[in-house]
Design goal:
This protein is α+β, with helices and mostly antiparallel strands. The chain contains ten helices and seven strands.
Length: about 240
């Protein structure tokens, strides 16, 4: 059964020729997680890589290798490519629970309906539908220009409205996909109230997601999940 599941995962990888995906799956099945990590990193650099799948499986390899911060970071990157992956969201919750972090954070896990709706269809499907509907609208307008009104011409308004909705979903997807400024705490860190790393301090835990607000030299200012602002070493986070 394990190898059947692995075969299905390989078949779902859309990379052509997916030269590293096969080897990565094999390494993972052999419990050679460091090798699987290296191979998935290489796969992500290939032209036609299915990034949502690859980041998710890379996160699995990091999890098995007990590198929980990198696992969360890659799961988050996978959600950037396809937000509606409930298994990936569940994996993040499992790791956060293991690290003693909040697993019911509403900002991270719930009520994000706009993202959920935006990713109901894949980017490829959205582009294909937009092209098809645009061609239909163009054909309708061309026929109307030369031949006059068409029967059922009212359908034009529905086609236009549907195309506009799909365009909005596509651009929302792109906005979410390339959203920057977030990071995962990679090692136990102490956050300070000023950029000189002095003053009031707060312990920041591994796996916590932060928003990067400012960067000066080797330090960055972050906003924690509790909406507090602290300065920490830049090397203590993994950008996502």
């Amino acid at each position: 059964m394990r190898y059947i599941i692995s075969l299905l995962i390989i078949l779902s990888i859309q990379s052509t020729p997916a030269q590293y995906a096969y080897k990565a799956i094999d390494a993972y099945n052999k419990a050679d997680y460091p090798a699987a990590i290296v191979l998935w990193e290489k796969e992500l650099k290939t032209k036609n890589c299915n990034k949502a799948q690859a980041y998710s499986l890379l996160g699995n390899a990091y999890f098995k290798n007990k590198n929980f911060a990198h696992a969360i970071a890659n799961y988050e990157k996978s959600l950037r490519e396809n937000y509606n992956q409930e298994d990936v969201k569940f994996n993040i919750k499992v790791i956060r629970a293991k690290l003693g972090l909040d697993t019911e954070n509403k900002i991270l896990f719930t009520n994000d309906y706009l993202r959920k709706v935006s990713f109901l269809l894949s980017g490829f499907t959205l582009k294909l539908l937009i092209i098809i509907l645009s061609c239909l609208l163009l054909a309708y307008n061309t026929y109307r220009f030369f031949k006059g009104d068409l029967k059922f011409g009212f359908l034009k308004n529905y086609l236009f409205a549907f195309t506009l909705v799909l365009l909005c979903l596509y651009f929302l997807q792109e906005q979410f996909r390339y959203e920057k400024g977030f990071a995962i705490i990679s090692i136990e860190s102490t956050g300070y109230e000023n950029m000189n790393l002095k003053g009031e301090s707060k312990a920041l835990r591994v796996g916590e997601m932060v928003k990067v607000l400012d960067e000066i030299g080797v330090t960055i200012q972050v906003e924690t999940e509790a909406n507090k602002h602290y300065w920490i070493q830049k090397s203590n986070v993994i950008y996502i």
